[in-house]
Write a structure and sequence with these properties.
The complex is a heterodimer of chains A (113) and B (111). Chain A is 0% helix and 57% strand. Chain A is mainly beta and 113 residues long. Chain B contains no helices and eleven strands. Classes of the chains: A mainly beta (113), B mainly beta (111).
């Protein structure tokens, strides 16, 4: 379970702030994902990186900006967020392909004031 | 991925009772995955079922994939307080093979 790490664990930010969420994997998987999860709801896919290239953007607002500096790191840059963006942000990794399974990090619990 | 319907949304049981959650799809699934998320935690992969009629066991957990590959179930025998959490089924049958999660079933175990 500690092979995918996320920092910070908690983040409180104002609507004018700029912050970044970080994810690091030590599993060597080629696919990396960002999910958003609201309380009592399933994870909702935001972005997918495959071999460090953005392959899927699920119509996410531009105030969320992903970045994949290398095969181990995934960032999510946040700017001008809204209170409704408060949620648990999960990073996941997978091998990709038909039987891909998702290995999730512990998440960052974000509160936008 | 396809939209899988998962029921029930919540289930309260007394410790020691059994528990079952069901996932149903209107279309044939290539495979189905199950995840568990503890309160305050993150989803953890439990198992993947691929073959028609497949049954897999993990201690007190039994996973089944229907013969038509349109439904799946997770059954827990003699629940314990450690079983508390939300169980999600996920369908990776879409073109990008990324799992689409069901709504989840939250299991509450009363000691």
């Amino acid at each position: 379970d500690t092979e995918v790490t996320q920092t910070p664990k908690h983040l409180v930010m104002g609507m004018t702030n700029k912050k970044s969420l970080k994810c690091e994997q030590h599993m060597g998987h080629r696919a990396m994902y960002w999910y958003k999860q609201k309380a009592k709801k399933p994870p909702e896919l935001m972005f997918v990186y495959s071999y460090e290239k953005l392959s899927i953007n699920e119509s996410v607002p531009s105030r969320f900006s992903p970045e994949c500096p290398n095969s181990s790191l995934l960032n999510l840059h946040l700017h001008a967020l809204q209170p409704e963006d408060s949620a648990l942000y999960l990073c996941a990794v997978g091998a990709g392909g038909r039987t891909d399974t998702q290995y999730f990090g512990p998440g960052t619990r974000l509160t936008v004031l | 991925g396809q939209q899988v319907m998962q029921i029930p949304q919540y289930q309260h049981v007394q410790e020691g009772e059994d528990f079952t959650t069901y996932c149903n799809s209107s279309t044939t699934l290539s495979n189905i995955q199950w995840y568990k998320q503890r309160p305050g935690g993150h989803p953890v992969f439990l198992i993947q079922l691929v073959k028609s009629g497949e049954v897999k066991k993990q201690k007190r957990l039994t996973f089944q994939f229907g013969e038509a590959k349109k439904n799946s179930s997770l059954h827990i025998t003699a629940t314990q307080t450690t079983d508390v959490g939300t169980y999600f089924c996920a369908d990776p049958s879409g073109g990008s093979y990324i799992p689409t999660f069901g709504r989840g079933t939250s299991l509450i175990v009363h000691p």
